[in-house]
Amino acid sequence: MAQLWGGRFTGETDRLAYEFNASIDFDKRLLCQDVEGSVAHVTMLAKQGILTEDEKESILRGLQNILKDVEEGRLEIDDSCEDIHSFVEARLIERIGDAGKKMHTGRSRNDQVALDMRLYTRQQVCETDALLKKLLEVILKVMEENVETYMPGFTHLQKAQPVTLAHHYGAYFEMFRRDRQRMADIYQRMNLCPLGAGALAGTTYPLDREYAASLMEFAGVTQNSMDSVSDRDYLIEFLSALSTIMMHLSRFSEEIIIWNSNEYQFVEIDDAYSTGSSIMPQKKNPDIAELVRGKTGRVYGALMSLLTTMKGLPLAYNKDMQEDKEVSFDAMDTVRGCLTLFTGMLRTMKFRKERMAESAMKGFTNATDAADYLVGKGVPFRDAHAVIGRLVLYCIERQTSIDKLSMEELKGISDKFEPDIYDAVSLETCVAKRLTTGAPGLEAMNKVIKQYKEYLTES
């Protein structure tokens, strides 16, 4: 059991206690970040005259060889060490001798852990942002191809007013664009280097923290050593943003699941993102959408877990903080997987445009426009509202729609109706008249699509 702290102890750690304390099984994914941090630290130590150039070069070669050997399968990360930090240091000392024992000069495992996790999370923020951008590109492509694909818009899951598929997808473009903005905000706030904070009170060695930070492309250094080793705000913020992404994916998945149902038949999900039934041969299930929806709770759980872990911890570092990794890693992996699969599902999904338009007409989504038509003929809106309510009831009783009624039937409801009513309540007219910013009209949609294209090009 390789440990970094054995001098103070005369007895062996209980094996069960050692395993309970160890984190090597999950923090081994921080190997690259641990080596990167150590390279920067050692380079800085040599610059400050704390290590010789020969010692620096020996340590750097040793670190790079350890990383290469692990990546190429010649060196296995096993549980003989309690964490990835002790594994790297133990292997380094084995390979280069006493020079390896100097690598940790002026550093605590507390600021080392804080640095590794911050480096890893920073990378995850960038990767998540890139996946969000790919999703937005697919959404925008669907929007460009469907500015005149008519469908019902809903409130309370009841058909409300006609919109276009482009407009509906545009709502999700806005959501995921805000998710990208959150990634940028998190990156900016977390991009400070905690290395050099020591255990909690800095160090007496003349470290150049700013130089080490610059080697790892941090914007600067943290300003309080106690906060540096006990801060997990950035991780909580990232998990919160990941939860919001999953909430958006879950809402979108729910709609796709509904649209895919026999009752709606708005979409057909590609076979690559569907499964069948073991007993019912007719089934084509939207399993990917359902799993994305289901995995949302898993990411929420990670956020709640870390919030609960941190809520009662006094300054500075406490071992409780080791619990930040497993749940966070799982949440990061889950969101990456969900974004990748969901984007592929959207890219290959087919739309039944005639079915969508038919649903909009049968759902009386043009009723508000019919009322506006009567207002244009001089009928007070409240009276027009009542007239169209009677008209809708008349249609329901006869299982028809407003546009299918004869002029005689319409006149029987109100003598204000004229032949131009048919054009007024067509889906094309109902949508085209909505030209305010953010509305589904063709002119308004083309403007926003142009803005979205510019945004994706610039970001």
How would you sum up this structure, described in words?
The structure is a single chain. The protein has 459 residues and is mostly helical. 63% of the residues lie in helices and 5% in strands. The chain contains 20 helices and six strands. It has a two-stranded antiparallel sheet. A two-stranded parallel ribbon has the order 3-4. Helix 9 (209-215) links the parallel strand 3 and strand 4 (220-221).
Tell me briefly what this model is.
The protein is mainly α and about 450 residues long. Helix content is about 65%, strand content about 5%. The protein is elongated and about 100 Å long.
Key features of this structure:
mainly alpha; 459 residues; single chain; two-stranded antiparallel ribbon; 20 helices; two-stranded parallel ribbon
List the helices and strands and how they pair.
Elements lengths: L14 H7 L2 H4 L3 H17 L5 H19 L12 H13 L1 H4 L7 H37 L4 E6 L2 E7 H26 L1 E2 L15 H7 L4 E2 L3 H6 L2 H28 L6 E2 L18 H24 L13 H25 L1 E2 L1 H10 L4 H10 L4 H17 L9 H7 L7 H4 L2 H6 L9 H17 L1
Parallel strand pairs: 3-4
Antiparallel strand pairs: 1-2, 5-6
Helix pairs in contact: 3-4, 3-7, 3-9, 4-5, 7-8, 7-13, 7-20, 8-11, 11-12, 11-13, 12-13, 15-16
